[in-house]
Amino acid sequence: METTIVKMIALALLTQAIAIACFSIDDRISQLPGQPQVSFQHFSGYVSVDDKKERSLFYYFVEAEFDPASKPLVLWLNGGPGCSSLGVGAFSENGPFRPSGNNVLVRNEYSWNREANMLYLESPIGVGFSYSANSSSYEGVNDKITAWDNLVFLKNWFLKFPQYKDRSLYITGESYAGHYIPQLAELLLQFNKKEKLFNLKGIAAILEFATDFNSRAEFFWSHGLISDTTYGVFTSACNYSRYVSEYYRSSLSPICSRVMSLVTTETSKFVDKYDVTLDVCISSVMSQSKVLNPQQVSETIDVCVEDETVNYLNRKDVQKALHARLIGVNRWLVCSNILDYELLDVEIPTINVVGRIIKEGIPVLVYSGDQDSVIPLTGSRKLVHRLAQELKLTTTTSYRVWFAGMQVGGWTQVYGNILSFATIRGASHEAPFSQPERSLVLFKAFLEGRPLPEEF
Known about the structure:
Blueprint: H1 2-27, E1 42-50, E2 55-62, E3 73-77, H2 85-94, E4 97-99, E5 105-107, E6 117-122, E7 131-132, H3 143-160, E8 169-173, H4 177-192, E9 200-204, H5 209-214, H6 216-222, H7 228-236, H8 240-248, H9 254-267, H10 308-313, H11 316-321, H12 351-359, E10 364-369, H13 377-390, E11 395-404, E12 407-415, E13 419-424, H14 431-434, H15 436-448
Parallel strand pairs: 3-6, 3-8, 8-9, 9-10, 10-13
Antiparallel strand pairs: 1-2, 2-6, 2-7, 4-5, 11-12, 12-13
Helix pairs in contact: 3-4, 4-12, 6-7
């Protein structure tokens, strides 16, 4: 009798293992249209976060190019809120391929899957290929809902890929993901107290409303984008956090309206706020700051010829290869036009969340492209220094340059060997897009927990 029960249990476990294996096999991408031959596997598809309401998040997963079994798992999130990690992160920044004319994909020499297994998530519901069968799910979405959905996604994704369940997990991203990431990380740590599931080893990104937003005036002024007079009123009469707060409450005061008109006129619509050194002709994949850059004065951006990523991801053969489908929309978009996000969540304090994560022993990296005026390095540096003081962390690496590719890659400072700040020299808001080699050097050092290079 006991032998029969053991056999039955063994058979059940084998059946379950086969079923789980089939999940990931079904999501395996045989080859994307126009894709060059590669040695690594990649997968994409859906993970349900709410079966009852038929809410599913779309993911794209790229195994590490070399020895994936020994490499960590990295979750990448883009911001907005409402912009795609597939189109921006994977196909424009640090993924293995980029669309390039004539319907082909070219290899990204500095893809982050050289160092890690990369998981790109289109979140929240309503972004990219992620969908709900009920359009009401796109209304009133906020940071809390997003964090919970992302946790459920990871939990269920591990059912498809159980071999990654105990793998070292890092969460990285940019822009409004500076809200998504720390709030998700804290939720994972809370969940682990009930059931040890997430082997979180580090996070990179933070967005803090007042400090980050109000560093914009100084950045504009120091780069010659606004006059002394405008700098004065932009810091005293109406700073940027006040403007955003009033704008999203539909209560814009006359003084803030006047100040922002001055700022807009002087900075000019012909300067890219994501990279003040670039000419204005940019790809729309750079536009992921719905909350961070609300426009009182209408600005039109001259998008160069066509957006190859948008065109590529809207091809039927590409969608079929990705196991993707459009639900409730006619086209895949870089940033969602159906998501109604609670924009005032931008005011939620995140620095305290990051502080609690550090107290749990989780390393945190805050990095900035030094040409980005949307989330300027000056604000990020102040945030990290203030947090280090509050946590009583001493400086373990004094402020210094770091190197990449025989050049200065940026500057860095480390506190308590657990809280790090780094700039990426010459980088924009989307650092891996504008400085891919330097961004990869920074990423590799973060994963390995070692100092950034001090010499060539």
